[in-house]
Amino acid sequence: MAAPLRHRPLLLAVVLLISGLPRPAHPFTELESDQIARFQEYLRIRTAHPSPDYAGAAAFLLPYAASLGLHTTTLHFTPCKTKPLLLLTWPGTDPSLPSVLLNSHMDSVPAEPELWSHPPFAAHRDPATGRIYARGAQDDKCLPVQYLEAIRGLRAAGFAPARTVHISLVPDEETGGVDGFEKFARSEEFRALNVGFMLDEGQASPTDAFRVFYADRLVWRLIVKAAGAPGHGSRMFDGAAVGNLMDCVETVAGFREAQFGKVKAGEKGPGEVVSVNPVYMKAGIPSPTGFVMNIQPSEAEVGFDLRLPPTEDIEQIKRRVKEEWAPAHKNLTYELMQKGPVMDVAGRPIFTATNESNPWWSVFEQAITSAGGKLSKPEILSSTTDSRFVRQLGIPALGFSPMTNTPILLHDNNEFLEDKVFLRGIKVYEHVIRALSSFQG
Ligand SMILES: *[C@@H]1O[C@H](CO)[C@@H](O)[C@H](O)[C@H]1NC(C)=O
Ligand SMILES: *[C@@H]1O[C@H](CO)[C@@H](O)[C@H](O)[C@H]1NC(C)=O
Ligand SMILES: [Zn+2]
After folding, report:
1. What total number of domains does the chain contain?
2. Within this chain, do residues 115 and 227 fall inside the same structural domain, yes or no?
3. Where does the secretion signal sit in this chain (predicted)?
4. Is 85 exposed, middle or buried (0-12, 13-18, 19+ CB in 10 A)?
5. Looking at CB atoms within 10 Å, which of 41, 105, 179, 414 has the fewest?
6. Closest by alpha carbon to 407, among 131, 193, 181?
7. Ligand 2 pocket residue status of 336, Cβ below 6 Å
8. What's the pLDDT tens digit per position in 194-228?
9. Phi and psi of 77, rounded to 5°?
């Protein structure tokens, strides 16, 4: 029943007070409300490490995809079969064309509930701001729901893709992908998909331009060991092991400052420089109470996490390590461990071109424009994603999560995604999937 006219201003004031912000009470269509609800449902499945509920995720995603008419397959790359990899397929009208793969990982990093303002697995939606709070809201459980809802929209519009579109939902990305995409990329099943191009997760953008990632940095580990003459703690002499190690650490620190300086000055993004950070140091002679304090030890050691943009001159970095960071004449030896290859199967550096030499890039860029969006300058991701396994095969892959005007909260407390941003992402994927799956090149 309508309130008497004279009470209306008061009622309005009360409503505004309760809601905090003047958002309309029913801003969404029924379909949009359902889409938000499906996102929340997926977020409530606890796929965080250390014990991700992959069975729960599969029980949600497989019938969801089947209800949209997609074919579903479950692959296993572990003998215990506790880490399913789901493949959802929308067959194209021309199976001779290479397919489009849309990837997403099902797992997420753990959350510490006591540090969150809302429980991290409740997917609470704040009615005032539209923010949906949950571990995985940005990284990256929005993606499969957006992919599937975009397909729903395209099907409703009568669209039929020329290329087959696959969605892969993989386990264990957050723990390195060993039992997930790494094994998948090496499998016969992957080869049979004949993937021409892949889209994988990217990151939120605090501005109104979408971010896109065309490479991951290479991950290396460097261990430097120093030797030197031992001696009494009271004696000053040249050539002690710790002194030699300090020379190495100082040289590396100088290089690090120069690289970091370019990031601080805004000249380069954090993924576009070589990062090197000491992660452990080891020296000294243990004693029952700690360390012997009056002997200078004959050995010392330091470990570095070293990450390189694939566009870097790799041989030059190797020379720098050998000649400047750990020169043998200073009694230094080193071990350089490279995780993963430096070149793809065709012997090229591992990145996806973002110019007209790569037709997939042009199709993608055009689709973003047609969706009313714009892209910021393509970036190299400073960490790693599953995309690297695909790029290593020489297949182009871009990292992209359609989240603009959103703080970067992956792996952080109070990770959230705003409902409207989530919904806009569905529209963006409608354009992107339509364009990629229609591409005839
Ligand atoms: C190298 O180590 C040896 C002992 O192992 C020591 O005698 C020598 O002075 C050291 N030289 C340098 C340059 O540190
Ligand atoms: C496109 O980018 C690649 C890789 O950065 C580069 O080698 C090539 O010269 C560029 N081609 C054109 C046409 O700009
Ligand atoms: Zn992720």
Report:
1. 2
2. no
3. 1-27
4. buried
5. 41
6. 131
7. no
8. 999 999 999 999 999 999 999 999 999 999 999 99
9. -120, 10
The response to whether residue 311 sits with its C-beta less than 6 Å from ligand 2 reads: no
Asked whether residue 417 is assigned to any structural domain, the reply reads yes
Residues with CB under 6 A from ligand 1: 227-229, 239, 244, 330-331
Residues with active-site annotation: 107, 173
105 carries a ligand binding annotation: yes
Domain boundary among 339, 366, 390: 339
Inform me whether the pLDDT recorded for 16 exceeds 80: no
Clarify whether residues 382 and 408 are in a common domain: yes
Residues 177/170, Cβ–Cβ less than 8 Å = yes
59 occurs within a structural domain:
yes
Using CA positions, which residue lies closest to atom 2 of ligand 2?
353
pLDDT band at 27 (very low <50, low <70, confident <90, very high): confident
Judge if 72 and 201 occupy the same domain. yes
User: Based on the domain organization, do 283 and 323 belong to the same domain?
Assistant: yes
Answer whether residue 9 is part of any domain.
no
| Percentage of the residues of the chain whose pLDDT score is greater than 90 | 93
158/224 same-domain check:
no
Residue at a domain's end among 313, 339, 365: 339
Neighbours of 111 (CB within 10 A): 21
Res 22: pLDDT? 55
Residues 203 and 222 occupy one common structural domain: no
SS3 238: coil
Return the CATH number at 75: 3.40.630.10
Q: Is 112 in the pocket of ligand 2 (CB under 6 A)?
A: no
Give the end-to-end CA distance of the chain in Å, rounded to a whole number. Answer: 61
Distance separating alpha carbons of residues 258 and 273, to the nearest angstrom: 10
Residue 123 DSSP one-character state: -
Question: What digits encode the pLDDT tens for the residues 56-89?
Answer: 999 999 999 999 999 999 999 999 999 999 999 9
- pLDDT number for residue 1: 37
- Both 101 and 227 in one domain: the answer is no
Is pLDDT above 50 for 318? yes
Domain that holds residue 77: 28-212+354-438
The alpha carbon of 282 and the centre of ligand 1 are apart by a number of angstroms equal to 19
Residue 114, ligand 2, Cβ within 6 A: no
Domain membership of residue 300 (yes or no) is: yes
Decide which of 367 and 22 is more confident.
367
Q: Residue 153 is encoded by which pair of tokens?
A: 């929209």
Find where tokens 């039992």 sit.
179
Mean pLDDT across the chain, nearest whole number? 94
* CATH number for the domain that contains residue 292: 3.30.70.360
Closest ligand to Cα 139: 3
Same domain, 82 and 39: yes
Tens digit of pLDDT for each residue in 263-303?
999 999 999 999 999 999 999 999 999 999 999 999 999 99
